[in-house]
Amino acid sequence: MALLTKAQINSAVDRAWEDVPVPEWGEGAMVRLMELTAADRGYIEAGSVVANGQSPSLKVESLKTYREKLVGMSMVDESFERLYSNKEIAAGALGSKSGAVIERLAAKVQELSRMGRFAVKEAEGNSDADPSGSSDSD
Fold first, then answer.
1. Which range marks the domain in which residue 79 is found?
2. Does 34 fall in a domain?
């Protein structure tokens, strides 16, 4: 098996996506949600935690818009270009939308990105896998 080159890694399409119906936004309305990039995921997670010395704590202000950030950063058009910029999301572009709709879409983003409870489910699914390395503890 040959190792990948940087060009191969950079050109790989590795993010899952799904078209999700949003009937609340119109008859037949759909949005395309795409798995978060590593950078967007880090931005969201870092914005939700503030370090106090050695103990990180949750940043309440950021948690108020957590779901909006998830949805805004993952919503793309047919060409897979983001619909909302970070600036628009920070300005509350989705803040006036239905909380139930944003919650449902945020859950789908978490599923696509294997975050939260979806990360736990994936880890549980892999718990029966045989270790690939050898052990010296025999």
1. 15-117
2. yes
Q: Is residue 64 part of a domain?
A: yes
Instruction: Give the 3-state DSSP-derived string for the chain, with helices as H, strands as E and coil as C.
Output: CCCCCHHHHHHCCCCCEEEEECHHHCCCCEEEEECCCHHHHHHHHHHHEEEECCEEEECHHHHHCHHHHHHHHHEECCCCCECCCHHHHHCCCCCCCCHHHHHHHHHHHHHHHCCCHHHHHHHHHCCCCCCCCCCCCC
Residue 49 lies in a domain: yes
Taking the model in full, what pTM does it have? 0.74
Number of domains in the chain: 1
Determine the average pLDDT of the residues in 23-37: 97
Question: In the numeric block, which tokens belong to residue 107?
Answer: 């859950």
